[in-house]
């Protein structure tokens, strides 16, 4: 095996990577759509079968199954390099039909094209190159998860288990629009705030009513006031609903809260403040509950992760990515879980894209091959 065989083969596979990406972008795979997420998984399994790469599913009754694949190093019992990615998206049923995979002016479009189906495709082809030609200094493990966009409720224990058993983790979330990768991320908590009040006719019996919507409004103002941009702490109530009718005091209301933070020490302090707000009734007679629905931990760069980044950066220069740097992202990702268990981790290694979670999400087509080559060269560096 020569290094050139790996990088040349990856260059020859650009259209094959685009074709696989088209197939999976055109399958709806919202995090809550188990059938759709598993259909994307089945398409990846077909690739593994065609190339003779061993793979297996780790089933889940509610969310998509975790998919594992291995490219072994013969006779080795060493810890593997873990290539990680998720195949779920934030887009509901029918979105792929409304705006299927398209390419225009060097950019690909479609639901999840950058975040992060292209990164999973890239990981798969890099692993396939080593399966075909050998030369990997350590075993390679692929993990393709199913529910990252909602905080990985089923995948987190799988990710943490696989992360603990790995020597290094490369998470192929989309490369930044700058072309950089991600060396640090915020932590995040997704919460549900439920409020009960009391229904009453808002004209004939107004005084007997207790408005849950009124209480929610007070709590939103208080929760948003916890934002501290200088410390990187943000609070956002991004979804609200409630009420029975326009002429009834609202017996119920709810809000979905997004907390982001940088310093792990800030988590407990902000959560205590939120709990105090939840426990305080601004409208007498209301009652509130708070439930954590999903959580990410921050990616904090350790000395070993810094060394892993520097090794990757040198590999990227070999692949022609001479200006690549590490940068911080306010977004959360599964890489936080592997970083938190102490495994050297870097993120954002996928093809370059932007405007994730919007109809304008795009992928830079010409970034696919060099980013794949950079990852392969980083693996070869050991």
UniProtKB/TrEMBL annotation:
<dbReference type="InterPro" id="IPR011650">
    <property type="entry name" value="Peptidase_M20_dimer"/>
</dbReference>
<dbReference type="InterPro" id="IPR001261">
    <property type="entry name" value="ArgE/DapE_CS"/>
</dbReference>
<keyword id="KW-0378">Hydrolase</keyword>
<keyword id="KW-0479">Metal-binding</keyword>
<feature type="domain" description="Peptidase M20 dimerisation">
    <location>
        <begin position="183"/>
        <end position="282"/>
    </location>
</feature>
<dbReference type="InterPro" id="IPR017150">
    <property type="entry name" value="Pept_M20_glutamate_carboxypep"/>
</dbReference>
<dbReference type="InterPro" id="IPR050072">
    <property type="entry name" value="Peptidase_M20A"/>
</dbReference>
<protein>
    <submittedName>
        <fullName>M20 family metallopeptidase</fullName>
    </submittedName>
</protein>
<dbReference type="InterPro" id="IPR002933">
    <property type="entry name" value="Peptidase_M20"/>
</dbReference>
<dbReference type="Pfam" id="PF07687">
    <property type="entry name" value="M20_dimer"/>
</dbReference>
<keyword id="KW-0862">Zinc</keyword>
<dbReference type="InterPro" id="IPR036264">
    <property type="entry name" value="Bact_exopeptidase_dim_dom"/>
</dbReference>
<dbReference type="Pfam" id="PF01546">
    <property type="entry name" value="Peptidase_M20"/>
</dbReference>
